[in-house]
Specification:
Blueprint: H1 7-23, H2 41-54, H3 77-81, H4 104-110, H5 129-148, H6 155-168, E1 196-204, E2 222-233, E3 236-243, E4 248-258, E5 269-279, E6 294-305, E7 310-319, E8 332-344, E9 347-354, E10 356-359, E11 366-375, E12 378-385, H7 392-395, E13 409-417
Antiparallel strand pairs: 1-2, 1-13, 2-3, 3-4, 4-5, 5-6, 6-7, 7-8, 8-9, 8-10, 9-11, 11-12, 12-13
């Protein structure tokens, strides 16, 4: 089946979806605290600075999935701490306004003998005495403010929040995927509002079976991709990438429409990836900025997190002009599948299979198998696969190696969020 490229209608479609995505706003949770006594404003700013410098770094207490579900970023720490029980010792509150000395937050940063786990901040020098004193004074200011104005929560809402906390003990605490890619396929993981993501990807040309003389492919030439992404919102990312293959530049917009369990208790997350790319490698009798060098892609990302160790993803994907070098080029429609199985703490097996259903196809359907390790703000992936493609339109048509011939190559991805 041949899918002819229709760039103008496709651009129009992308424009409509983009306008819709930017204007769409999910309803807020009615049980979130809308007004919290902030105490002394100067002390609050000083406390926020201390948390930002020592706690909300390297993906510790920051981002969509902070450690212990505790986000201490500047615009979130107050609600995350006020009247919230500690996950380590639920009988103690993170900030106890009735008995401030029993605030679990203070106990953790002081290194109290009764705490569970290690003193905070983790793997860093303890806070200075002056910093601890500032946090103590800030908590005291909250208590004074409490005596003047109660937090605007009805008893029914408090009961609801307590029930949600008890239920949260058994809820999934880790994201479905650490990286924004399984291997090539996109995931529903986002960068996070105001954060940056740098990605380096390598695919070695020679096959592993080329032997020791080529160090099983590692001595050979490689295709590399560098990308830089920014979180416009918590659920909206913009990424610019450049691949060595065809000297192609790609711009992607990913919008996470909803997350698993948060809208009507749906058992999956859904995201939409819209992109366009330009082949900048010069060719005789063809201008760089011609329609023949332009490609557009649309990917719908559906992920289901079975539990903290197993996650699955399904990605219907279309790209136009995938064989751009052919005068009568085609588009490609594929149905990607993949997953992650965490076998140890933050060490996982990852895999994907990208069968082409219609349009242009390379020698074989795309596939990959590897391991993934998360360390702080880094995610490292090493794998074997059959494709050298790195941009969306390059990997959607499949790979040049056939599995039946036992042809496969080595590749890796590195993600760094900051």
């Amino acid at each position: 089946m041949k899918l002819k490229s229709k760039p103008f209608s496709f651009i129009f479609f992308i424009g409509l979806v983009l306008v819709f995505s930017l204007g769409f706003k999910l309803p807020r949770n009615p049980y979130l605290i809308q007004s919290v006594d902030s105490g002394d404003n100067t002390l609050q700013k000083e406390a926020a600075t201390i948390f930002k410098r020592n706690c909300s770094v390297s993906d510790c207490h920051s981002g969509t999935y902070p450690r212990m579900n505790l986000n201490l970023e500047e615009d979130k720490f107050l609600k995350a701490l006020s009247n919230i029980p500690s996950q380590e010792i639920p009988s103690l509150k993170l900030i106890d306004k009735e008995n401030p000395e029993q605030s679990y937050l203070l106990m953790k940063i002081r290194g109290d003998k009764t705490i569970v786990g290690r003193r905070m901040p983790l793997d860093s020098p303890p806070l200075k005495e002056s910093e601890i004193k500032t946090i103590e004074n800030w908590i005291s200011s909250l208590i004074e403010a409490q005596s003047k104005q109660e937090i605007l929560l009805t008893q029914a809402e408090k009961t609801e929040q307590e029930a949600k906390f008890k239920q949260g003990k058994t809820e999934i605490r880790k994201p479905a995927f650490w990286g924004t890619r399984v291997i090539n396929l996109p995931t529903t993981q986002t960068i996070g509002k105001g954060r940056f993501l740098f990605r380096v990807s390598h695919r070695y040309f020679p096959a592993i079976k080329s032997g020791y003389d080529s160090l099983y492919g590692l001595d050979g030439p490689a295709v590399i991709l560098l990308s830089f992404g920014y979180g416009l919102r918590d659920n909206l990312d913009l990424t610019l990438a450049r691949a060595k293959l065809d000297k192609e530049v790609e711009l992607l917009l990913k919008w996470v429409m909803f997350e698993q369990g948060k809208i009507l208790a749906l058992p999956f997350s859904a995201a939409l990836s819209l992109g366009g790319s330009l082949v900048t490698q010069s060719e005789p009798d063809r201008k760089v900025f011609s329609a023949d060098n332009m490609k557009f892609n649309l990917q719908v990302i559906l992920s289901h997190q079975v539990n903290n160790t197993l996650s699955l993803v399904l990605v219907p994907a279309y790209s136009s002009n995938t064989n751009h070098w052919d005068p009568s080029s085609e588009g490609t429609f594929a149905l990607g599948t993949g997953g992650r199985w965490m076998i140890f703490n933050d060490l996982s097996i990852i895999w994907e299979w990208v069968p082409v259903l219609a349009g242009y196809k390379d020698n074989s359907n795309g596939w990959g198998l590897g391991i993934e390790k998360k360390i702080g703000g880094h995610v490292f992936q090493v794998f074997i696969l059959n494709s050298i493609g790195l941009t969306s339109d390059q990997f959607i048509p499949g790979g040049d190696f056939r599995l039946k011939d036992w042809n496969l190559r080595i590749g890796f991805n590195i993600f760094r969020k900051f």
